[in-house]
Amino acid sequence: MAKAKGKVTFDEARCKGCGLCVTVCPVGIIKLDTSRINVKGYHPATVDEMDKCIGCANCATMCPDVIISVERE
Question: Which of 30, 41, 57, 72 is the most exposed place for a label (fewest CB within 10 A)?
């Protein structure tokens, strides 16, 4: 059976960098991008290794500002 694939997108301009999505990702691919600051003055959440996303949507469920969308293949 093939492993589920997912794609996560963030409304980075609205991200407040709380890190809750980072803590609930079971595959550990979400991080706060400390090299950038968004319009609100925070380090936005990002994913570097999207191919490892399993589409579980834990991040989207946990996000208090509803800025995360998850798509499954």
Answer: 41
Q: Angle at Cα 19 formed by Cα 73 and Cα 33, nearest 5°?
A: 80
State the fold for domain 6-72: Alpha-Beta Plaits (3.30.70)
Give residue limits of the domains in the chain. 6-72
Determine if the pTM surpasses 0.85: yes
Contacts of 2 (CB under 8 A, 6+ apart): none
Beta-carbon contacts of residue 41 (< 8 Å; ≥ 6 apart) = none
pLDDT (tens digit, 9 = 90+) per residue, 9-57?
999 999 999 999 999 999 999 999 999 999 999 999 999 899 999 999 9
Structure tokens at 11: 């409304």
